[in-house]
């Protein structure tokens, strides 16, 4: 199985375990890596609820922040419910594919541009997993309605809007994209992550 296939499969399982009655309004993908080393990526899959947003609304800068900023997410949205990619099967699949792509390197080697390429590849994997959740109907099956998947990397916050737009149907993320400081809420919706 490819690394992307592994991530898609496990993410689908995780979403199936979310409590449908919890008032979830968004799924969250916190993109990260062990010790900030792009050779060891993972995604923390979680969710945020209407109750979470209402609770922080009093302290948030504005309504958008309370609902959509990862800085205000409860633990289920920030830390996620489960980490995907760090388990043995994920680590093995990632390394095997990174080696095949010529992106793997050892600690004593110069990484060159491979760090950037590994990071971009993992963004693509995460965007693909979110798209698969939508395309397969898994979100609706598990939670009863279509919901946006918010993708973010706390170490590269500028990617949040681009990745989220690429991963979701535009209609699901219009409210989220309204917070994009770079402009047009519909710009880039559905575009590949590298564009």
Topology of this protein?
Layout: H1 3-16, E1 24-33, E2 41-49, H2 50-56, H3 63-68, H4 75-78, E3 82-84, H5 88-100, H6 114-136, H7 138-143, E4 149-152, H8 160-167, H9 170-177
Parallel strand pairs: 1-4
Antiparallel strand pairs: 1-2, 2-3
Protein model, in words:
The protein is of the alpha+beta class. It has one domain. The chain has 9 helices and 4 strands. Strands 3-2-1-4 form a 4-stranded mixed beta sheet. Strand 1 (24-33) and strand 2 form a beta hairpin. It is globular. The protein starts with a helix and ends in an 18-residue tail after the last helix. Residues 185-195 have low confidence and may be disordered.
Characteristic terms for this protein:
alpha+beta, four-stranded mixed β-sheet, 195 residues, 4 strands, disordered C terminus
Structural class: alpha+beta
Uncertain parts: 185-195
Arithmetic mean of pLDDT: 92
Number of strands: 4
Helix fraction?
A: 40-55%
Oligomer: single chain
Would you kindly provide a brief summary of this structure?
With 195 residues, this protein is of the alpha+beta class. The protein has nine helices and four strands; from the N terminus they run αββαααβαααβαα. 46% of the residues lie in helices and 13% in strands.
